[in-house]
Amino acid sequence: MTASTSIDDLVDDAYAERRRAWQAALVTAQNFLETIADELLDNVDRDRLNAQSARVKEPARAADKLRRKIAEGRITEPTSVDDVVDALGDLIGIKVLCKSPRDLHAFVDALEKACNDPECSVRFAKEPMDYVAFPKPSGYRAYHAVLLVRVATHQGDLDVKVEVQVKTRLQDAWGELTHEDMYKPGEALKPTKTHEDQARTMAELLLQVDSMADDLAAQLDSQTTVSKDAVAEPSPVPKDSDIISARVTRTGPRYALAVGPDGRRGLIPARSVKAVIGAKDRIAVDDYLEVGDVVRVVVEDTEDALYYHLSSQPPSKGARKRHS
Length: 324
Description:
Structural class: alpha+beta
Mean pLDDT: 86
Distance between the termini: 72 Å
Number of strands: 11
Radius of gyration: 26 Å
Shape: elongated
Strand content: 15-25%
């Protein structure tokens, strides 16, 4: 039997024996990551974090990677299913895409806190690699962690390794834009100095865009939130302002968007809703407004934004439920 056939047979045996456990570990890890995201974002704005991209590596690709590692002298030829699993740390993989760097850092902090909790059933298999703080020479940026997920099987509990990559959407796009998968070790193309220089330059440019996205998000937060300790006071209303009807087109925890009779969209900030309902603590706008609501608002057109301040109590979701 040739070495090539032997490896193929071993990989087939590994998948036959453990694919079901790997799939179970994948689901468990995804649920774990999604729960962290839910808690982090308080179940709102969930498009900012997404852990839906996941896979178990195809057997043919696993066998090819084993052969490449053997040829490069990085591993000895495997002789058992355990050897195959040990040699391939990325058999099961999940990608967590973040809207901006602040979301990435918040998620990583929460992930590390969870995995370092002695009571957590999911833990790190090894020390994570932070290629965001310390990018690869190519310009690659991402946070890599290998989770150890315990799965119950008919032969007893099995610890399964799940690789997790956390990156911003732009960091993920960098791989596509630079054709990174074509220039990896063992792949068809070998990077030239020109390619390496261009890839690093693109990484730096995308990093700047990511930073700008964070700045914009911070500006939006400052315009739509009110401090938890601040006393709710009426929002400033300019003289001769009109009261109009506006239809809510989007809601979130910090603000709602509504369209007026002239077609312009205005911002209903949390501070406006808080002032009208007389709340003392922080509120979520989408607890009081939902898409389709028609509300009476006072228009405030400033240099920063077009604001629609509520002029009367908003229709409460809770009130709807109680009366439905």
